[in-house]
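seq as requested:
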Amino acid sequence: MWFILLFISIFTTSILELRWSGVGIEDWWRNEQFWVIGGTSAHLFAVFQGLLKVLAGIDTNFTVTSKASDEDGDFAELYVFKWTSLLIPPTTVLIVNLIGIVAGVSYAINSGYQSWGPLFGKLFFAIWVIAHLYPFLKGLLGKSNRTPTIVIVWSILLASIFSLLWVRIDPFIKDPNKSSSNGQCGINC
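struct tokens:
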């Protein structure tokens, strides 16, 4: 129920933004997509970098140099931007959602008719996330198929760890001990 209210509030805010700003739906959707892509990559790393600076005192220094001055010289590695670590979180989010869709549909097929109802909300959320990350996926795969292997390896490793933790925690299953103590239970009440 909370997810439905959350999505209704997000849709309401988006409709108000569209009306007040005079932006078209296509421009709004592209903006939403790039906010999600930035939020799972660059903004996430900025938060970690800020936490490292505040908590551990580790400061990141940037050196601004002229790119045209030394393309093949001694300092050529200064001009190379190592962006593979920025690709890992959004790729992991994509893999986790794809795994969730496959696992949810296979569970619903094996469990019968009563399991399809709760599945639709979960599928909606997973497909919503994948639709937001579609430009990233399109750029990642691209025409030349030059996705760095380390991105795929780390993303699959992190997605596997998150999936195994999710299965271990299993927040959607009712625990009789918890439900009797605080009067609440999971989705399957």
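Helices lie at 2-21, 25-40, 42-56, 84-111, 116-132, 134-141, 149-169, 176-182.
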